[in-house]
């Protein structure tokens, strides 16, 4: 019974955690529904006299959604370990099954959703960085072209520009140009 009451207290804390997060970040609203369902499943095994509603803990809400996602990731990882430990020591098979189901939901659903959201965030940050680097490169190329037109292009400026180019990008541009020239050559031969 002690393990069950500990699990119920854990679910009450998780419910408060996700309710606080969902107030600021709507992404977490489905987690509140899952916590309510898990709390209901656990509470069905406990006599009503043994259930004391836990005081809502004061949850510090992270300042960004990314920090909230990382906090939720840590929360779910700890929750999985907690329920796996409870399940390993639970003699009641029905309660053990609920412990395993909660751990599986955390592992298969919650962690997956959080990791996908984090990956999307980091991907968008990387794309933004690549876009800004591309804009800088185009601006450098424009300055270089203006200097060449004005006749003030120096070897140092050209070397600096070429040093900033990504070799893979330069190789890809050259290869792409060669393929286009080759295709153009074959198309012109077919017209004759």
Question: Can you offer a commentary on this structure?
Answer:
This protein is mostly helical. It has two domains: 2-125, Ferritin (Up-down Bundle), CATH 1.20.1260.10; 165-192. It has helices at 2-24, 29-43, 65-88, 93-150, 155-164, 167-191. Helix 1 (2-24) runs antiparallel to helix 2, helix 1 (2-24) runs antiparallel to helix 3 (65-88) and helix 4 (93-150) packs antiparallel against helix 5. The longest helix has 58 residues, at 93-150. The chain is elongated. The mean pLDDT is 79.
Oligomer state equals single chain
Q: How far apart lie the N and C ends?
A: 89 Å
- Using DSSP, what is the number of strands? 0
Shape: elongated
Radius of gyration: 29 Å
| Content of β-strand | under 5%
Helix percentage: over 70%
What is the CATH topology assignment of the largest domain? Ferritin
Instruction: Classify the secondary structure makeup into a structural class.
Output: mainly alpha
SSE sequence, one letter per element: HHHHHH
CATH class of the largest domain: Mainly Alpha
Uncertain stretches: none
Mean pLDDT: 79
Instruction: Count structural domains.
Output: 2
How can the largest sheet be summarized? none
Q: How many helical elements?
A: 6
Could you say what the CATH architecture of the largest domain is? Up-down Bundle
User: What is the CATH homology-level superfamily of the largest domain?
Assistant: Ferritin, core subunit, four-helix bundle
């Amino acid at each position: 019974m002690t393990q069950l009451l500990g699990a119920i207290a854990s679910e009450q804390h998780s419910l408060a955690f996700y309710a606080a997060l969902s107030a600021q970040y709507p992404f977490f609203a489905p987690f509140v529904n899952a916590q309510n369902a898990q709390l209901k499943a656990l509470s069905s095994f406990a006599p009503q006299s043994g259930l004391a509603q836990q005081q809502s803990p004061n949850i510090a809400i992270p300042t960004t959604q990314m920090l909230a996602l990382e906090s939720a990731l840590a929360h779910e990882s700890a929750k999985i370990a907690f329920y796996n430990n409870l399940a390993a020591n639970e003699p009641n098979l029905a309660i053990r099954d609920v412990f395993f189901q909660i751990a599986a939901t955390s592992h298969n659903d919650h962690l997956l959703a959080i990791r996908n959201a984090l990956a999307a965030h980091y991907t968008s940050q990387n794309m933004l960085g690549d876009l800004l680097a591309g804009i800088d490169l185009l601006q450098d190329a424009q300055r270089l072209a203006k200097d060449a037109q004005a006749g003030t292009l120096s070897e140092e400026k050209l070397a600096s520009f070429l040093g900033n180019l990504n070799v893979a990008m330069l190789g890809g541009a050259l290869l792409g140009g060669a393929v286009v020239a080759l295709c153009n050559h074959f198309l012109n031969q077919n017209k004759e």
